[in-house]
Amino acid sequence: MKKRMDWAKAHFPQLAVIFLILLFVLISASSVLHKYLTVDESVYIAGGYSYFLTGDFRLTAEHPPLGKLLVALPLLLVSPRLPLESANWVSSEKVGDVGANYGFAADFFGANPESFFPIVFSARMVTLLLTVFLALLVFLWSRDLFGWKAGLLSLFIMVLEPSIIAHSQLATLDMPLTVFSFASFYFAYVFSKSGKIKFLAASALFFSFAVMVKFSALFFFPPLLLFLALQHRGLSKNREGIFRQKNTLLYYACIFAVFALMPLLFANILYSFDNYAKPHYFGVLPPRMFEGFQFSQNWQESGREGYLFGEFRRFIPEYFLAAFLMKTTIAFLVLLAAAFYFLVRKPRLDAFSLLVPAVGFFLITSLMVRFYLGLRYVLPAFPFLFVFCGILLDEKREKPLIGSKFASYALLLLLAFHAFSSLSIYPHYLAYFNEFIGPGNAPLYLTDSNLDWGQDLYYFMDFVRTNNIDKVDFIYFGWPYYGADFPEAYYGPSCEPITGKIAISATSLTGVDSGGFKCYEWLRKETPKAKIAWTIYYYELS
Hints:
Elements: H1 2-10, H2 12-31, H3 39-54, H4 66-72, H5 75-78, H6 87-91, H7 98-110, H8 116-146, H9 148-159, H10 162-168, H11 174-194, H12 197-211, H13 221-232, H14 248-271, H15 287-302, E1 306-308, E2 311-313, H16 319-327, H17 330-345, H18 349-368, H19 382-388, H20 405-424, H21 457-466, E3 473-475, E4 500-505, H22 506-510, H23 514-519, H24 521-524, E5 530-532, E6 536-541
Parallel strand pairs: 3-4
Antiparallel strand pairs: 1-2, 4-6, 5-6
Helix pairs in contact: 2-8, 2-9, 3-4, 3-7, 8-9, 8-11, 8-19, 9-19, 11-12, 11-13, 12-14, 13-18, 17-20, 18-19
């Protein structure tokens, strides 16, 4: 018995990491079982699968193909039918025909109703596995900077953060972008410590992966160079090779060349599987990639109205900060503030450099992005903040936090509060809002993928069956249900007030633009009889 206890004590950090990751997988995989297909998942799954079967990357060309290929990889085992006879497939050949892209996704799922669940669930598990990799990197980086206790602290915060759990369950591009961009910075950090070229190559490769998931990864290019510049200041003066300090100019020239050329090389390799007939632009840019990027830029410049604090506006620079403050746990916000305080009291360059990508990406996105569709747009900033919180248990401090009883108890209380906030919303993690707001009041502040992405159709169907509702006017923000067991009047009324049994998605209730906001003003004045999974409101109006 004593030997077992000694072994457990000696291997406590490893056992704790395994336990936290298994807890995360259990929470994420189980809570998504009864969640319906969200709006954007459909086009990414159908698009990625079409790439494999046709060698044609036409669908959703405004995003590069890597993320879609990854989530569609398990479908090669499921083998659903791809309806290439669809008119939407022909129409989607035009870059940027968003309606045809979504139309073909509807055709794809409509052609495979018996395989619906295995298609969606298997695609989502790819994202979950990528997030497990992210969790390991968060632990390793925090442990290396501040010690193993700090590593466990950062990992604990991450695996119970509701926004991370919510998006780790979905076959979308936001989490793959987060994983690959963070991995790029992690290996850049390892390179700065070791000077070994293989870690520089790994960093550039993961940066290339991120760019091939979403073009917005290019926002990380300036913070990445700044991050490496800060790391370079700490290089040993005795280091051999071209990266020693006196060769600073050559160092930066090589860094810039590697991170500029590697994504271009990887893009040419990836797009070589696309049977697009057009020649390369400028001799080096794959035509589908160039046209997709161009469309994405034009679309971004045109922008769209965003909803915040009960109103629609065109430019909302404070949107992502407000969403962050409402949709992360209060405990995490307090821990983050305490970590800032610790950094100010005793500055550390390696700890400060963590804020460069986090704050840099946050600011660039807030100022340049004109699509206010959810906190997910700044999800790549989160893992840097998790690692940064590890400074609270920095083993190198003269007076570590754990040395004070009051601080230790406060930390334990905050971690317990963090866990409680996360577990109390189970399984509705996408709808999480912290205790300052609460999911019940969320539509007064934010909607769309912050709250309602069409994920709770199954819960609504259970509600209908339980309450023996045979007819309901349903205004639903999401995809049709591919089955017969659904009540009459699937799509709902116009903007004119009606009576009877009405159900409406939270995003539809506030509208996707100012016109939609005015449309259901009459319904927002009524008190719902039930709120289903926090995202679908049910009324009985006479």
